[in-house]
Structures are given as C-alpha cells and as structure tokens.
Design a protein that fits this description.
By secondary structure, the chain is of the alpha/beta class. It has one domain: Response regulator (Rossmann fold, 3-Layer(aba) Sandwich). It is 42% helix and 20% strand. It has 5 helices and 5 strands. Helix 2 packs parallel to helix 3. The two termini are 17 Å apart.
Length: 133
C-alpha cells in the first residue's frame, strides 16, 4: 500500500502540528482524519477505516497510549507512530502490544515522517490480514 492509497489518523493537541501533518499527508494523496485528542480520535477511528495512526503521547482528555489501548479493545488494529517527549523511556513491549511501530520525538522533518509512514505501510501490506470495515 502506498501513502496515496492510505487513510491516516493524525492525533495531536497542537493545532499547528496537526494542520501541518494533515496538509503534508493530503498533498501526498492520503485520506486524512484529524483529531485534537484521544477522545475525538477514538470516535473517528471506530467510525472510519484507518491504515495508520499518527499520535502524540501527551494530550489532554485521553493520551496516545490510552487511545491505542482503547482502539485495540475495539479491534482497531491499525499500526501507530507515537510522538514521545523523549524524557521518560518507553516500555518497548507495551508499545509493541499497542501496535506502535515507531516512536519518535518532535519536531520531525516532513520527509522523515513520509519515509517512516511509507515503511509502516509497506510492512502492513506485507502481512496478510483482513481490513477493518
């Protein structure tokens, strides 16, 4: 699957970053859903098919890890890229259980984000699975 064929959920409480990521991904041809926190993202991801979730870890109302946990409990299995603050080390086994393929710190160069998303999409396409409806 290519970026242009994908649906991506962008979750970030910082409006400028959420808009920047959304515009960048739309220009690459992706279908983009955007949410300002985990609560809104949970609603979007359970109502729409998403191929990848790009989420911030620290957000009000529901953080990125709680979002991913809630999605897994609802059988939404889209892989995730998690933005972390880099201060507290992450539990790699927990991240793996939650479907986090990469954890990165912001800011991130747009081209690096695109390459990361393409790699995640390629790895998903390589594994046979049923698409969420």
């Amino acid at each position: 699957m290519t970026l242009a064929e994908s649906s991506i959920l962008v979750v970030d409480d910082e409006p400028v970053l959420r808009l920047t990521f959304s515009v960048l991904l739309r220009r690459m041809g992706a279908r983009v859903f955007a949410a300002e926190d985990g609560v809104e993202a949970l609603r979007i991801a359970t109502e729409n098919h998403v191929d990848v979730i790009l989420t911030d870890k620290q957000m009000p109302n529901m953080d990125g890890l709680a979002l991913l946990q809630q999605l897994r409990e609802r059988d939404v299995t889209a892989p995730a890229i998690l933005f972390v603050n880099g201060v507290v080390p992450e539990d790699s086994k927990k991240l793996e259980r939650l479907g986090v393929k990469r954890s990165v710190t912001k800011p991130i160069h747009p081209q690096e984000l695109i390459l990361m998303l393409e790699a995640v999409l390629a790895s998903v396409a390589a594994v046979p699975h049923e698409r969420d409806s």
